[in-house]
Amino acid sequence: MDPAVALADLQTSKPDRVTIVLLSGDMDKAMAAFIIATGAAAMGMRVTVFFTFWGLNTIRRKGVASSAKDWLRRMFGLLNTGGADNLPLSRFHFWGLGTKMMKKVMKQNRMPGVPELMETALDLGVHFIACTTTMGLMGITKDTLIEGIDQFAGVTTYLAEAKQGSVNLFI
Asked: How much is the pTM?
C-alpha cells in the first residue's frame, strides 16, 4: 500500500485507541514503540504502552538497584541495569560498539534518542502501564522505575485497553 494512501486512510478512519506491548528492552525496538506512540498521540489518539518483561528495562531509572528481598531477584536486577539511555541494540550490539555508533549517527541526523522520545510521549499524554506480574518475576520494584508511570497492573488491564483499541501492536 502506498504510504500516502495508508496515512490518508488512517487520518479519515482515525482509530480512537492504540495500544503497544513493549516486550523488548532493545534500543531500536523501544525507539520504534515510542515513535509510533508519539505519532499516534500527536494525531489525537489515546495511546497506551504496556511494559512487560525486558520492556520494563526501558522505564527503569538509571543506576537504581533493585530492592527485591531475595538474592535471585536482586541479582537479576543487577544483570538488567536498564535505563532508557542504556539499552543495547537488538542486532550488531558488539559489546556496546554498535550502540555507540548508532547513537552517533542518530545525533548527526538530529534524531532523538529513547529518553527524549519517552519524555515526548509522556508530554503528549501517552499512558504507561508497568506489568506487575513480570515486575515481580524480574525483581523490579516501583521505586526502581521512572516517574510518570500511570498504572501498575497486570494483563487484564492491558486487555481491557486493547479491547477498545483498533490498533494493537506487539514490539
From this structure: 0.85
